Amino acid sequence: MVLRTAGGRLSLLVFLWSVAVVLGQYGWSVTYTTRSICTLKGSTVNLSSSYTYPSGTVTSTFWFIKTFDVENYVNLRNDSDYNGRVTYHSDKTNGHTLTITDLRESDSATYKFRFITDQTGGKYFGNPGVTLSVTGLLVKVTPPTVTEGQKVTLTCSTTCTLGDNPTYVWYKNGHVTTKSTSLFLNPVSSEDAGRFSCSVEGHEDLHSVEETLTVTCEDV
């Protein structure tokens, strides 16, 4: 599995489970490279599979997440929710890759690959598919309001687990301050007050929303 940003940079923000091999009867199968992926809103992801079949010629290949009724699978390229954001790539060894750009949190779903041959009844899709989780970044300030001299922790939070223990870039009032998993201010002073946001190193263009840290003066 390879994940790239819109600019083409390799990304390690992929949370991988064991390879899923879905075997059908009589030589039908779909193999997914990964079972689960967690990645950032606004980035680009590749979902890969390969397939086998006993005979005939493949006439159609596509990915889907929706079905309207029995045998009515919605090709992701025809899904209005993905308009202009989906690309398919095939190779000569029956590999097939789905690329989704400008990811949204609403893209979080289980994606499955389907192929159709020219043989009677020659249709197949693979379970369980690939579970994609798309997360934004959120700054959590604990506690949100502090008094000078206390300790405060800022955490860059996600709704799923990004792989490879990413390093977070921290910003105060729009300017880079440090790179670390969490930001600790101990003891905190009034000069530490401000608007904080975070991004993942290598994806600095994908910022969290800003969170305000308020520091009150100690009582005299």
Class per helix and strand makeup: mainly beta
CATH architecture of the largest domain: Sandwich
Rg, alpha carbons: 23 Å
Could you please say which CATH topology of the largest domain applies here?
Immunoglobulin-like
Order of helices and strands: EEEEEEEEEEEEEEEEEEEEEE
Total separate domains: 2
Binned strand content? over 45%
Major sheet details: 7 strands, antiparallel
Number of helices: 0
Protein name: Ig-like domain-containing protein
Domain Ig-like: 128-214
Keywords: Signal
Pfam families: Ig_2
Characteristics:
single chain; seven-stranded antiparallel β-sheet; disordered N terminus; Immunoglobulin-like; five-stranded mixed β-sheet; elongated
Description of the structure:
- Residues 128-214 form the Ig-like domain.
- Residues 1-24 form the signal peptide.
- Keywords: Signal.
- This is Ig-like domain-containing protein.
- The protein is an all-beta fold.
- 0% of the residues lie in helices and 50% in strands.
- It has strands at residues 3-4, 10-11, 20-23, 29-32, 36-40, 44-52, 58-64, 67-69, 72-73, 86-90, 95-100, 109-117, 123-125, 130-135, 138-142, 145-147, 152-157, 168-172, 175-180, 182-185, 194-200, 211-216.
- The strands form 5 sheets. Strands 1, 2, 3, 4, 6, 10 and 11 form a 7-stranded antiparallel β-sheet that branches.
